[in-house]
Amino acid sequence: MQQVRHALSPVFVVFRRLFFLISVVGLCLFETEVFANNEAFRFNENANLALRRTAHLLLLQNGDSLSTIPPVQQIDANTFSVRMEHMFDYEQLPSLLKQSLQIQHIERGYNVTVLKCDNGEVQLGYNFLDLNREEGVACGGRRQQEGCYQLQVSFISENEEAKTASGNWWLLPFGSALAGLGFMVWNKTRPKTGTMPIQAPVVSFIKDSKTRFGSSVFDLVNQTLVSGDATHQLTFREAKLLALFAKSPNQVLERDFILKSVWEDEGVIVGRSVDVFVSRLRKMLANEPAVKITAVHGVGYKMEVLP
């Protein structure tokens, strides 16, 4: 019996290590997928804001500062559209759209089409490469009739984002090598436990635009968060969500309330947006021991400011 145990012992060790390697590689692939999803959410948000800004400036160029800009519609993963109830100056569109995309750090190529609202017929349009042509963009200088138009921007899909998990087969040997090294380190070490000193939280307002909680300072106007030694530049919605939490510390905010308060006025509501943006704020506040954003199962989220 003793000999049988000695014979089986190496087999168990091999199976245990193999299981650990498979788990680590699986986590690597999962993290890659999560990162891709987060990038897709960020791109959708930036494209939405760029198109809304363009529509706003086109209306101002036409002397219209009162009309409401309808919600931006996302046709598919790469196509966005906004309804323009009144005629706009097509000659101003290329430069204004290019500027808006640069502000949102969007570098993808794109096609622009102007369609009639009633029948969807394409009236005008151009490709982003036309901006570098001496003769200007396609359809430039043509007369535009009075009426309602649909401004549509279709971005060119990035091949890297279109790859599936099966296309990442090359990660397996690389991940296995890293996992083996990690197993060796893990087998010789043990995680150290300890507690960070909790500072007494202070929630106060500095001037009119800044809020302090714990040792962090949130500037709503400039959309910045200083936490620990890091300064984070927030997007419009990240700042809006953090401001919502800061106004109601230690209170549970329902998911529907968060969606309506942060996303509804922008015209795009995605169910998972709350989870993605909360995850971003948690990472920014990772070094802030006095503040923690917790999920309340089936209800929503709460920003806890520890006593």
Structure explained in plain terms:
It contains seven helices and 13 strands. It is an alpha+beta fold. The protein folds into two domains: 1-188, no CATH class; 203-305, Arc Repressor Mutant, subunit A (Orthogonal Bundle), CATH 1.10.10. The strands form three sheets. The chain has a five-stranded antiparallel sheet, with helices on one face. 20% of the residues are buried.
Give the strand order, joined by hyphens, for the main sheet: 1-2-5-3-4
Strand content: 15-25%
First CA to last CA: what distance?
A: 59 Å
Unreliable spans are 160-166, 190-207
Helix content: 40-55%
Give the helix/strand class.
alpha+beta
Protein name: Winged helix-turn-helix domain-containing protein
Keywords: DNA-binding
DNA-binding region: 208-305
GO biological process, one term: phosphorelay signal transduction system
